[in-house]
Automatic annotation (TrEMBL), chain A:
One of its GO terms (cellular component) is cytochrome complex. This is Cytochrome BD ubiquinol oxidase subunit I. One of its GO terms (biological process) is aerobic electron transport chain. One of its GO terms (molecular function) is heme binding. Belongs to the cytochrome ubiquinol oxidase subunit 1 family. It comes from Polaribacter atrinae.
TrEMBL record, chain B:
One of its GO terms (biological process) is aerobic electron transport chain. This is Cytochrome D ubiquinol oxidase subunit II. It is found in: Cell membrane. The chain crosses the membrane at residues 6-34, 80-100, 112-136, 177-200, 212-235, 247-266, 275-299, 319-341.
């Protein structure tokens, strides 16, 4: 039973991590595409239109990859987590089905129209199709996070005698206090990713001295959007989320922040330290006193429960992983603000396009927003453990009873091999598209 | 409400098989009949431009099945674990074939993705037929061994095949001679459908030849169909009861046979789109007849210990279904509108269309 859950979790974690690479870019990118298309409508400069169409090519590749890797996600609810599906399908099935019906159709239909229909429908309608792609991709995020929010903080349900969760209040699914902050935080983070990607493409063009005009445009947009979104990720959305975790999942909050023991006179914020699970303390700790209490409750001396306040089985089952995920996310987020602020300063002094070290740096920064996003997602999911539905349904009670661990291991290895191939080909394809650049686009 | 959702999901699945069915079919045609590079290119293009918007229907059907019949979703998806995961991999291979083929000009590169696209399309068509065969035949629900239930409730796990390879064994596997026959029917049907699509959407040099191919495939299909109707009775003796009790259900088999007979006149059909409609009837008629013969059962049980799964004992409670009824109708209207706009835009032959993102 133990390794059964382990392989099922590993498989889900692996497939969703790989999947999430793609939608996090498309969601943010769709915003930038709408922005360029809007600029084009206003000043009729062909440059903006080409930029929008070029980014839509990158979008389309990522969207395709998102579809390919997204279908397994939906299947796995049934294949690997059959009991969870049976018990909660009546509730989370609502939001998942709505995702398919409302946002996925919208996104895919209008993506095709955007790519093929420019000549047929004129610029205003073309802008509209781009906007609808944006709407579809953000609505997708909304429905997926509504599903996740219900698992993090279940609302509007009733539990029958046979253990099945029954929907009692549909609108509660969308007024869930967990949902809005999680959604905004997530969307801003996806704008960070796409801004960094676009800035990186811009830096690449400038350094390579080809497509320089577009290079400058992409770099400027990437830096401006990057700074704004990095700031918004931290405050207010990140802060709001942290407060929600402290309120609804105090055990997860203590583990995230690395508070092993409750301090009577206010909690310190840990900047660096390694959780030592044997002695139940942080090694090599660097911390600032009382800050955490203030950030969480706007009170320097308010007590925050540490891990010693909870029963062993209520604590997340992998505290170091949770702690590191959270700290990597926060650390990278902070660094992003600094880098983008610096880049904006150079832009303002008109030195950004010629200052090579910074251009190289920006070009190679691309993996980090992805890491920050994925560790952010891990923070939410590891924090929810050991539950699938927080406080109500244990992860161990959600797996498929008939699927043996050997089968899951076999399919996991298959996914790993296949996704490695897919990832490699994806990089080739994106690399080729970027290398061709906006000017050579035929549409 | 259960019936409403049953009809909606069956419709969406039907649309999925009609739409994605033709691009599976083009894969099969591509594998066996496309020899010249130009033909290969336009055929992959005729599928490549459309596959991802077709696959959206699968996602939608999955989501709605999950919402409306969670117990069915859970037992069937974990019960058919291995074949479903293999289907996922095949979907990925097929998509890679379509998306990557045109990216480089090297012949070897194209050959690799041609095989990937063709073989996975063929296997997917086969697997979908086998899946339908399994649903008609029923499974060892609850995993009963010697009259004792191995799992509580309706959970089961099917091996890929059982040593007897027989559909009437107590513990049938996914693949037996009956499901293989249904699998072949599916492959032939989708190949016909795909050929019709290629004729409709391209100016490929093999289009004329394909009409002859369809004619031959149709003969094979007619033979397979008659044979399957005979073995169907052995595997599921109750399958005609519904048609006797509710004679109006005969409309579904009539759809199927209209398609089947109509396609014998393929060479005389003037408009390509009419031929395409005939193979559409074939697919829709086949699926709806199978479902109608089972109704309200959605997965028969081959043992006496467990009740079959029906739309009633697997559905989510009334409130959830009623709420979903409201947003479901809105969603479906929107989808129909999008699809009409989109299909109008991508109408016409694909040869000159720009392919590749």
């Amino acid at each position: 039973m133990e390794d059964m859950i382990f392989y099922d979790r590993l498989q889900f974690a692996f497939t969703i991590t790989f999947h999430y690479i793609f939608p996090q870019l498309t969601m943010g990118l769709s915003l930038l595409i709408v922005y360029y298309k809007w600029k084009y409508l206003r000043n009729n400069n062909e440059k903006y239109n080409n930029a929008a169409k070029f980014l839509m090519k990158i979008f389309a590749i990522n969207f395709t990859m998102g579809v390919i890797t997204g279908i397994p996600m939906e299947f796995q609810f049934g294949t690997n987590w059959a009991k969870f599906s049976e018990l909660t399908g009546g509730i989370i099935g609502q939001t998942l089905a709505m995702e398919g019906l409302f946002s996925f159709f919208l996104e895919s239909s209008f993506l095709a129209l955007f790519i093929f229909g420019e000549k047929l429908m004129g610029q205003k309608l073309h802008f509209l199709t781009g906007f609808l792609v944006f709407l579809g991709s953000w609505a997708s995020g909304w429905f997926i996070l509504a599903t996740n929010a219900w698992m993090q903080h279940p609302v509007g349900y009733e539990i029958l005698e046979n253990g099945k969760f029954v929907l009692e209040n549909f609108s509660a699914l969308f007024t869930n206090p967990w949902l809005l902050p999680a959604f905004l935080h997530n969307q801003m983070a996806s704008v960070v990713t796409s801004s960094f990607v676009v800035a990186s493409i811009g830096a690449f063009y400038i350094l390579r001295k080809k497509q320089v005009e577009y290079g400058k445009l992409f770099l400027k947009t990437g830096v401006v959007f990057g700074l704004i979104s990095s700031l918004l990720v931290a405050f207010p959305t990140g802060d709001w989320n942290a407060k929600n975790v402290a309120k609804y999942q105090p055990a997860a909050f203590a583990a995230m922040e690395g508070i092993f023991e409750t301090e009577e006179a206010g909690a310190e914020i840990v900047l660096i330290g390694q959780p030592n699970m044997v002695e139940k303390k942080l090694d090599n700790k660097i911390a600032v006193p009382n800050i955490l209490s203030f950030l969480t409750h706007q009170d320097w001396n308010k007590q925050i429960p540490g891990m010693d306040q909870f029963k062993e089985e209520e604590l997340p089952d992998n505290i170091p992983a949770l702690y590191y995920s959270y700290h990597i996310m926060v650390g990278l987020g902070t660094i992003f603000i600094g880098i983008m602020a610096l880049a904006l300063f150079f832009l303002w002094r008109k030195k950004l396009y010629t200052f090579k070290p910074l251009l190289w740096f920006i070009m190679f920064l691309v993996p980090f927003p992805y890491i920050a996003n994925i560790t952010g997602w891990y923070t939410a999911e590891l924090g929810r453990q050991p539950y699938l539905v927080y406080g109500l349904l244990k992860t161990s009670d959600g797996v498929s009873p008939t699927v043996s661990s050997g089968n899951t291991l076999f399919t996991l290895l298959g996914f790993v091999a296949l996704y490695m191939l897919l990832g490699l080909l994806f990089l080739v394809l994106v690399g080729k598209t970027i290398n061709e650049g906006p000017k050579l686009q035929k549409h | 409400m259960e019936i409403f959702w049953y009809i909606i999901i069956a419709t969406v699945l039907g649309i999925f098989f009609v739409l994605d069915g033709y691009d599976f079919g083009t894969g099969i045609i591509h594998l066996f009949f496309a020899k010249k590079e130009n033909d290969k290119e336009v055929i992959t293009k005729s599928a490549g431009l459309f596959w991802d918007s077709n696959e959206v229907w699968l996602v939608a059907a999955g989501g709605m099945l999950f919402m409306a019949f969670p117990t069915f979703y859970a037992s069937v998806f974990s019960g058919f674990y291995l074949p479903l995961i293999i289907v996922l991999w095949l979907i990925i291979f097929r998509a890679m074939g379509l998306e990557f083929r045109g990216q480089f000009k090297y012949q070897m590169w194209k050959d690799i993705w041609d095989v990937s696209f063709g073989v996975s399309s063929l296997l997917l068509a086969l697997f979908f037929g086998i899946a339908l065969g399994n649903i008609v035949r029923g499974v060892n629900l609850g995993g009963v061994e010697n009259g004792i239930s191995v799992y509580e409730g309706h959970y089961f796990f099917l091996p890929l095949w059982d040593s007897s390879f027989s559909p009437i064994s107590e513990t049938p596997g996914i693949i037996d001679w009956f499901t293989i026959i249904i699998g072949f029917i599916s492959v032939v049907t989708l190949a016909i459908h795909g050929a019709n699509w290629v004729i409709l959407k391209t100016n490929s040099s093999i289009n004329l030849k394909l009409k002859g191919v369809i004619f031959k495939l149709n003969i094979a299909l007619a033979i397979l169909t008659v044979f399957s109707l005979f073995v169907w009775q052995i595997v599921n003796p109750d399958s005609l009861n519904n048609f006797v009790d509710k004679p109006y259900l005969i409309v579904f088999p009539i759809l199927y046979f209209t398609g089947l007979i109509g396609l014998f006149f393929i060479k005389k059909i003037k408009k390509d789109v009419h031929a395409f409609w005939l193979s559409t009837l074939l697919i829709l008629g086949g699926i709806t007849s199978s479902l109608a013969s089972l109704f309200p059962v959605i997965l028969p049980s081959v043992n006496d210990v467990h009740e079959p799964l029906t739309i009633y004992n697997t559905a989510a409670p009334e409130y959830g279904l009623s709420v979903a009824f409201i947003w479901g109708i809105i969603g479906i209207i929107l989808i129909v509108v999008y699809s009409i706009i989109q299909k109008r835009l991508k109408g016409g032959k694909v040869d000159k269309m720009d392919y590749g993102h």
